[in-house]
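Q: I have 235 residues here and want to know how they pack in 3D. Can you give me a structure?
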Amino acid sequence: MQYLKVAAIAMLILTGIYLQPAIPGEKTGPRIFFPQKTAFLEKLPSGGRAKYNFEFTNKGDETLVVDEIKTSCGCTNAMPSQKEIPPGGSGTIKVTFDSHGFLGNVSKEIEVYTNDPGHPVTALSLKAEVLPTIQVEPKNIDFETIHIQTASPKDLVRYIRVKDMIRSGARVRFAETDIPFLRVGVDSVSGYETRIKAWIAPSDYRGSFQGVIKILSDSKFYPILVLLVEGDIKD
């Protein structure tokens, strides 16, 4: 019993030693602090760019060094306002997100690497709702198999609809293709929608084919739209 009492007292003494607060004036090293680690951007048109600054502070007593910043994809660029931040100083991580090719809710991650011994990597998150600006239907065109001797006129024609979803006033200016026997052109314009006609012209060509239709508009977000075209022509 006496042994147990001595062991208990020794344990309390050791615990007290390890749990006692840091000695005033003791060095803490660099300490990075972000008041906000997640940013919610406003609704962003697809093809547009958004910028955001994540603010941070060095709450330590040594210089904080931003060693590296990594992003989850090439669509997001991030850089520090300065590499070294003195004790008590502040800085920002400047983030730019390019929404080209994205639609719907998007989340991008940024990792900040520093010499903070307690938090060598800090994860930041950038979230946005990306809205469509130009809608193209269909996305690609397949003429399938055309028996040229028995094909009806509608078998040789396809239509493409290009709609200005945000009503920016963008208009289709020109359409072209790299398929020699395919013709394309603006068929009609109604409000914010343009209809493009693509049709197969008389030709001696027989066999499968593949190419593209390129649509040029004055949209600042998507000035060039490309559709894949394929099919097979038989007698």
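Q: Anything worth noting?
A: The radius of gyration is 31 Å. Confidence is low (pLDDT under 50) at residues 1-22.
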